[in-house]
Every structure is written in structure tokens, then in C-alpha cells.
């Protein structure tokens, strides 16, 4: 984003991209609040419906880069509209479902459509504007994405108590449908004539083959046994798929992942930080939603549970203006480490949760860890692209966006496994359901604290990273950091630590 000409994006493209980003992110974050209601309605256990979360992220990880490539080759507007159409269809499928298969299948389709909408929406904004106006447009897109993610649980809770859980998907479908004619009438088609027309379909499939068996093993390992043929077989399939993925990417003319970029220590550190933050956020919202609504926990309604998550979401948004000045002062690597240190403290406090705790006892730990995760995420998101040369920015952004989906899929599966296993073990030992539920949450918090300790250690990879973009660029990246990595081109020669 180095163009000097100040060219404003049209109102239509701005409206379509920002509204669709808000809807996609609100839908994604709302589903965790809906799970107990969906479970009661379709008669499926939460453990099975967990795939509505992990399946979405799994497919998103495989599609996020490919959808952007398809937009470059076939036309960004065309692929963006296809993403909207697929999103509308998936919403209808989920809302009409009477069993877990329809809900999970619909959510997996939404993973593909949501990734397509986000990838192509950002591209449409980028080519429709330039200069300072481009920064303003991207900042607005980032703000819409962040607002959607923050308000999703509250909106979902309101709709569960008024229209039923299906209302969220019907409303989202209607808004997405309204974006279609706006896009057709106001957005010009664009392509990248310099890009190879080759699409890395093999890499896309192999990403799914790497992730799906891992998520399945984490989900079923307690039942199958961790040393069982089924569990070990899943891990073996993932390893084989990973080896094949590396071989395919080295030979592809337009690879899904440019493996040479993984020699860049700052990029690797930033990508791992993004993975850990995304995993922690999604896993935390998953387990808190279940604890808050469980009758043996707080027994909240869906609306009350959505309201209870607002302090965490608000803290992540509130810290955004301070991220860029702090990272510029102490360095991006140190800012990431400081953020993970704060998150460690917050999660460690929650590791002492007991059944006697009231909601008030959760507020301070949630605020601390949310500020920490927000602080870690901003510099990591901008650093993942600012640390590479201008011609590698798109590839670096693709890697970090894929990492965000991977972190969400694997972390939610792991936390669900720990939560179920610990709670069941405590029940078998004769403890009350309330004590067992609290023990499960405490174990999950401890695991996430360990993840954040690992995040602190990433300073060894990112210690030489300092923000290189203009303040406007950095603010845009920070605004969107919880949902998407904005491709920031470096203004100085990147440092390869």
C-alpha cells in the first residue's frame, strides 16, 4: 500500500466490503453462544456440535489463500459474490437443520464462504482506493470486522431469546443477500494480470488433510484411547499429509505457502503469535460460553452470557489506540512478549476458579488477559507483513491469515477435549457437577496460560521487529488484527533476524 495518489473508494464497495465483514465476523463469534440452544433443539451433544466451530476454522484455513488467488485470476467481484451466495445458502441450511449434520455441514460451508468474503472484500477495497483514502477505508473495514467479532455473542444472545437461534442465520442471510445487488451495481470487476493463472488445488486439499485428522484425534482421543490404532492413525495421516504438502508447495508454480518465507525469523515468530492469540481467543470464548450457560455453572441465558463476554471484547478494542505507540517505543517483539505476559497472568488467575466464584470474580482476569492478547496481536499482525519485501507482502499475509484459522481449529478441539476429560474425571471421583465443571474450566485456563508462556518466548524470534509503516497503516492493522492480517508493505528495508 504505497501509492501516493489519494483515490477514494466508492461508497458501494466500502458498504459491501465493510457490512459483509461485520456480518461474517459477528456470525462467527455468535455461534459459541448459540451452541447450548442448538444442542437442546436438535438433540445433539455439545461435544458433537463442537465441530460447528472447529469445522468452520478448518475449512477456512484451507480456503483463505485459495479464495484470494481465485479472485486475482477469475475476478475479485465475481468470487466475492460467489462467497456471498455460498454464505446465504449455508445460513439457510443451518437454520432449516433438524440435526447436527446439517448444522456442522452448514458451518463448514460457511468456513469457505466467510474466508472468501474476507479475502476478496479486502482486495476490492485495496484496488478501489489508494493513498490516505485507502488507509481510511482499510481502517474502517478493520473496525467493522472488530465490531462484528465483539458484538456477535451479544447479538446471538438477543436473537436466541427473541427469535430462536435460527434467527441469527436468517438475518445474516438477508443482509448478505442485500450486499449482492450493491456489489453488482457499484463495484467494478478487477483482476491481477501479472499473477500466474495456476491455482494450488493440491495444497488446498492437503491443508485440510493435515488439520482434519488432528482435530478428529483431539475430539475422540479420550473415547478411543490415546494409544489406540484410530488415534495414532489420525496423527499418522496428518504427518504424511504434511510431508506431501511440503513437496507439493516446493514444486507448485503459484504455491499456497511460499516455504522460503519461513526462513524469515520475524515472520515465523509473528505467525506463531497470531496462531496462539487466535487459538486462545476462540478457545476461551468456547469454554466460557458453556460455563456461563450451564445450570451447574452460572445458569445464564444466552443473552446474559453474550453480555458477560463484553468486557473481554471491549478490552481488546480499547487497547487498540495504544498498541502502535507502545510497539514503536519498545519494539514490536517486546510488545508481543508483554502482551502474552499479561495474558498469562489473566489465564493463571482463572486457573484457580472454583464453583463458589461469582461472575464478578471473572471480570478482572478477563480484562487483563484480553488487553494482553490484544497487545500481542496488533504488532504480530503488522509484523508478519512488514518484515518482508514488497513483492512478498501478499504471501506473508496469506500465511498469517491461514495461521489464524489453524489456531482456532486446533485450540478449540484441544480445549474441548481437556474440558470434557477433566470434568468427567471429577464426576467419576464423586465430586458435584458444579465442582467438576469448575475443575474443567480451571484446567482449560491453565492450558491457555501455558500457551501464552510459549508466546512470551517468541521474543527470541521477533526481538528486532519494529513497526515500519505509517501510523495510519499500523492503526488499520491493529483494528483488524483479531480477524484478519492486512497486507502492509514495508517502508524500509526489512530486517531478517
Q: How is this fold's topology laid out?
A:
Elements: H1 11-42, H2 46-49, H3 51-74, H4 76-96, H5 100-128, H6 131-162, H7 166-186, H8 201-224, H9 229-251, H10 265-293, H11 302-308, H12 310-318, H13 320-330, H14 332-350, H15 360-386, H16 393-428, H17 433-456, H18 459-462, H19 471-480
Low-confidence stretches: 475-481, 490-497
Number of helices: 19
Largest sheet: none
**How many strand elements?**
0
Shape: globular
- Series of H and E elements: HHHHHHHHHHHHHHHHHHH
Measured between the Cα atoms of the first and last residue, the distance is 24 Å
Fraction in beta strands: under 5%
What radius of gyration results from the CA coordinates?
21 Å
Q: What is the CATH H-level superfamily of the largest domain?
A: MFS general substrate transporter like domains
Number of domains: 3
CATH architecture of the largest domain, by name, is Up-down Bundle
- Broad CATH class of the largest domain: Mainly Alpha
Description:
Helices cover 78% and strands 0% of the residues. It has 19 helices and no strands. Residues 475-481 and 490-497 have low confidence and may be disordered.
What attributes characterize this protein structure?
Growth Hormone, Chain: A, mainly alpha, 497 residues, 0% strand
